[in-house]
Each structure stands twice: as structure tokens, then as C-alpha cells.
Design brief:
With 196 residues, this protein is of the alpha/beta class. Helix content is 53%, strand content 12%. It has helices spanning 2-24, 38-46, 63-79, 95-99, 112-115, 118-128, 141-147, 159-185, and strands at 54-58, 84-88, 103-107, 131-136, 193-195. The strands form 2 sheets. It has a 3-stranded parallel sheet, with helices on one face. It has a two-stranded parallel sheet with strand order 1-2. α3 (63-79) links the parallel β1 (54-58) and β2.
Length: 196
């Protein structure tokens, strides 16, 4: 088991370096090493504390590395009820420090599932000074014509009529979501509300 001990030692050295860097930025950081399948172990660790956000970095990798990261992220997504954030980096350097985040784009469709994470979005946006852009997507002309025959009782409405109705409904819905978020967070800047 020399290999396991060696890997654990390497992991601890790496985590010490990362934690030291975060602490140098004024953040509280701790670490631990575990053995087992990454997805379930990460979820088990996150479940130890109620107010936990799971965050992972994506590296834009291909091949085996992409499959591994994708399968771990997919496993976590299916196992956890915690908020889960994946930040994809296109460069080796730190994209956040280089460009900075300015807004959070939040797709919402009117369902409670789409809205259940809005308190976390509001918290992040408020803490990081970000604008929240709520987006609701309406069907394209091609989708409309493809889906129309499958809608029971349709009376051949025009795409333009349906789009006008959908945009008005989306604007009303997004206005209500905006109002609810502003009541929760006070000075939160919600930016553009756009049915798309």
C-alpha cells in the first residue's frame, strides 16, 4: 500500500498549497483527503454541513479527462440536493481574476424546479456585486411548426400570435420573479429581463 500512501501524501501537499493560496487571499480554507468513488464521497462531505455549495472547476479537456470530469459532475448532480456550481475555464490562467464576473444569467421557465435555486443566486449576486439577468426562452419558428401538430385542440394560430402571447406572458412572469428577488435581497441589481 505504498502507492496509496504516496498518493495521499501528494494530495495533501497539493491541498496545502491550494489552501495556503486561499488563506493568503483572506479566505478561510481547510482540506481533507478521502478514498473512494469521487462523486459519492464529494456529496457525503458536502452533506456534513447544511449551508454547503459544491463547486467544481472544468478545464475544457478532451478525451479521458473530459469523460472523468463529466462523469463525476454528472454523478454529483444526480446524488446531491445541494446547490452545485461548475466553472469552466478556457485558459490555464485564472479567468475570474483576469476578466471578473459581471453578471449571472439565470434561465427560468416558470417551474418551481427552475426557481428553487434563486435564493442562492441572489446571495451570490449580492455578495459579489453581480447583475442577475433572468432569461426565459420561447420556441423558435421551426420548433413552433414542429410542435404545433402535437398540441391537442390547436386552431392553427400564427407563429407571430403565439410569440406575442408568449413574450407578454414571459414579461409578466419575469417581472414577478424580479419583484420577489428584490424583496428578498433589497438592493439587488437585476439588470435586463428578457424573454428570448
Amino acid at each position: 500500500h505504498e502507492t496509496v500512501a504516496h498518493r495521499t501524501g501528494d494530495a495533501k501537499k497539493y491541498l496545502t498549497t491550494v489552501a495556503d493560496g486561499l488563506q493568503a487571499e483572506g479566505l478561510s480554507a481547510s482540506f481533507d483527503t478521502h478514498r473512494g468513488a469521487p462523486g459519492p464521497v464529494i456529496v457525503e462531505e458536502a452533506d456534513k454541513d447544511a449551508g454547503t455549495l459544491i463547486a467544481m472547476g472544468g478545464h475544457g479537456r478532451f478525451g479521458v479527462s473530459r469523460c472523468w470530469l463529466g462523469s463525476v459532475a454528472d454523478r454529483i448532480l444526480h446524488l446531491t440536493s445541494k446547490p452545485f456550481l461548475i466553472v469552466r475555464s478556457h485558459q490555464q490562467d485564472d479567468l475570474l481574476h483576469r476578466e471578473g464576473f459581471k453578471k449571472i444569467v439565470v434561465p427560468v421557465d416558470g417551474s418551481s424546479i427552475a426557481e428553487q435555486f434563486l435564493p442562492q443566486v441572489a446571495y451570490l449576486a449580492s455578495g459579489l456585486g453581480l447583475v442577475v439577468e433572468l432569461v426565459r426562452v420561447t420556441h423558435s419558428r421551426d420548433d413552433f411548426h414542429r410542435l404545433l401538430p402535437h398540441i391537442p385542440g390547436h386552431r392553427n394560430p400564427s407563429y407571430e400570435d403565439c410569440l406575442t402571447h408568449a413574450n407578454a406572458e414571459a414579461a409578466e412572469y419575469l417581472g414577478q420573479v424580479k419583484k420577489n428577488l428584490q424583496q428578498q435581497e433589497g438592493q439587488l441589481d437585476l439588470g435586463t429581463l428578457a424573454p428570448r
